[in-house]
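User: I'm curious whether this sequence folds into something compact or stays loose and floppy. Could you predict its structure so I can see for myself?
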Amino acid sequence: MKPINLQKLLNIIELPPSALAVLNTPSSFDKVKHDIMLFKERVKDQRRVLAKKHHPDIGGDIDKMKEINDACDLLLKLRIEPIRPPTVIRMYSSAATGYNSTTTASGGW
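Assistant: Here's the prediction. I'll summarize afterward.
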């Protein structure tokens, strides 16, 4: 499988590189899932805008429209998944009192 140049795909569909910035921002797991959905919706919206400009039925270039559709299809089919923070297990022990405890938490300390 050959590598995908995301910058080139964004250029084809006339989206700025900042469109990917939302996917690079550290956020909560649910917010990242929401941001991925928003990115894909933005790609779909941009396809509609460009279709109104480049569709062959309204005098646009068929090759340009095919290039736009191919770029959008690739971006929409990309498997973009947030990475869940690891589960951290902390063990607490107090030898003096004989008290033992286990706490499970997500994320950092």
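Summary: The chain is about 50% helix and 15% strand. Helices lie at 6-12, 21-24, 29-54, 62-77.
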